[in-house]
Amino acid sequence: MEVGAGEPKLPKINVKSAFVPSHMEHSLLHTLRIIQELDLATHDECMKVRMKVRGKWELGQPADAVEVLARMQGRPDEILDESIERISQKLAGSCVIPPARIPFASRFEMPMAFYDKYPDLQKLARNYKAPVLYAEEADVIGIGSVNPYFAEAFAQSIEKQIFAQLGTKPIITIVRLEPVSWQKLCKTHFKI
């Protein structure tokens, strides 16, 4: 797709930060490129989103580009959840295999055994605001988010860590969460 008329493209993914791991920076820039290509935000808005998300990550706080953009673009006649859903739906539609949207995800129990066994992955899930919905040992794992690109980046991190530790690749399912369930899960899993 072509970026809006005369709008500069986001920088190539070669930016590294001493505070933000490169895989997180990559996923953020990739998400923002897609947002810009879908005309969901201007280049300037994307740069503001980038700075806000990176700023939170540098402080050790979780952040999601979809939520930050929705808050920035919020209109008086549109509540935040509707804005998040609109952006999330368009992002999901741009995926090769769009993740299914499940409205009942908040009913899943928190996979404490998985988080206890892989505390670094729990921290990463918190940073991305992409909770693990279920985990059968390290074989079958489900994750959800309003941002399919952050969820995909998190899934790749899970796969790499489990392969490095166990020599096997898990089956990972990514689903798109509706905003209310997503917020409830983030509060339950990450105390945010």
Overview of the molecule:
The protein has 192 residues and is α/β, with parallel strands linked by helices. It has two domains: 22-93; 101-190, Alpha-Beta Plaits (2-Layer Sandwich). It is 53% helix and 10% strand. It is built from eight helices and four strands; from the N terminus they run ααααβααββαβα. The protein has helices at 22-37, 43-58, 65-73, 80-93, 112-117, 119-128, 148-166, 179-190; strands at 101-102, 132-136, 140-145, 171-177. A four-stranded mixed beta sheet has the order 1-4-3-2. Helix 7 links the parallel strand 3 (140-145) and strand 4. The chain is globular. Residues 1-5 and 11-18 have low confidence and may be disordered.
What keyword list fits this structure?
single chain; 192 residues; alpha/beta; Alpha-Beta Plaits; 4-stranded mixed beta sheet; 8 helices; 4 strands; 53% helix; globular; disordered N terminus
Please outline what is shown here.
With 192 residues, this protein is an alpha/beta fold.
Mind sketching the topology for me?
Blueprint: H1 22-37, H2 43-58, H3 65-73, H4 80-93, E1 101-102, H5 112-117, H6 119-128, E2 132-136, E3 140-145, H7 148-166, E4 171-177, H8 179-190
Parallel strand pairs: 1-4, 3-4
Antiparallel strand pairs: 2-3
Helix pairs in contact: 1-2, 1-7, 2-3, 3-4, 6-7
